[in-house]
Amino acid sequence: MAEKNISIAADRDNPNLILILLLLNKWGYVSGEDISKKLGVTRSAIWKQVNNLREMGYEIESSTRLGYRLVNSPDLILPEEIWSKAKLELLGKNIHYFSSIGSTNEKAKKLAISGAPSGTLVVAEQQTSGKGRLGRQWVSPSRTGICVSIILRPEMAPYEAPKLTLLTAVAACETIRKQTGLLAQIKWPNDILIDGKKICGILTEISAELDRINYVVIGIGINVNNYYFPEELIDRATSLSLILGRKLNRKELLVGFLESFESHYNLALKDNFKEVMTKWRKLSCNLGRHVKITGKAYSFEGNAIDIDDEGALLVKKDNGEIERVFSGDVSLR
Ligand code: ATP
Known about the structure:
This protein has 333 residues and is α+β, with helices and mostly antiparallel strands.
């Protein structure tokens, strides 16, 4: 079926209830009469909505006696798919969904400027100009990975914002480990690697005054079902499906990540960031290792010994000096 270009701005308090009912009763029939009573809509309005869902790829059986039954869902991360599975308070009350978009972070920044509340998500099946740090390109073909941006308005000083990248990395790394059993590791400051190849990138962007944050947008890209990469990335990138040799459920992975993110974010807001740091250290592939730091105008090598409370990497040079390295303008090899 040709992919339709869909964009939806959805609110958890006002979902597509037919889809929610079908998702919550998967494999069981929901009677037309029940739907009609619960939603206060006519049988023909239900029929129309069911057909809309079918056009989107939902396989729905109908029987005059029994009603409707969801047999198969398309590989789409629609807001209702998230709401029917996830236990979330802050995240995802508002979800902006796109089958294709330039960049979820760019869209999220525009929404944040026009007042979108903390916890708003931008989810896309594909990014046509996804980006990493320093304007580098992030490759995200349709329905292969997870592309999500989170808008937050934390009560935090701007200098604390790197903590958000660290906790996002912990949430992504833990979720990948839990759901796949693979040994994912965090590469400071913003990547998740498996066997030395990048499986996930994180881009944190912030708008702040001197002493307060206006908004933060955290973009996450996870390579899930990519079966190939452009030539220049083959040695550096990988996906969960390439490693495991099977297709994975992107919805479950996204829901797991969002739940983990929310609980780590709550820890950070409740002054329990130490717990997040302890996990980060355990998941890191850099600490205790030799690293090369490359900035625009300098480069040096040393041993990565720790990260500090502000998220800076502490690198001990050969002459014994310890450098605090901030993520803004460096690459790490
Ligand atoms: P680097 O990984 O080059 O040291 P970085 O960690 O700062 O730098 P990011 O800005 O986070 O990188 O991500 C952009 C880079 O990631 C691109 O320059 C490209 O090398 C790589 N990349 C792009 N798309 C993907 C992808 N889908 N999976 C893995 N790596 C990718």
